[in-house]
Write a structure and sequence with these properties.
By secondary structure, the protein is an all-alpha fold. It contains 1 helix and no strands. The longest helix is centred in the middle third of the chain and has 21 residues. The termini are far apart.
Amino acid sequence: MAQTANHGPQLTPSPRALQKALLQSAQQAQRLAQAFGKVVPTEKRKTTAHPEKAAPASPCTH
């Protein structure tokens, strides 16, 4: 059975690396917004035990 060598960087980051990058980006956005006196909208997380039982999102009525 042939094995492939790992040459070069991984093209798809791990979920942990993606989460870390997202957090760093959000923190940078907050710092920039504070520097210019603006407010960055934040996501309000829902903490439900069973996400499949959560209420569906209401449609936008714009």
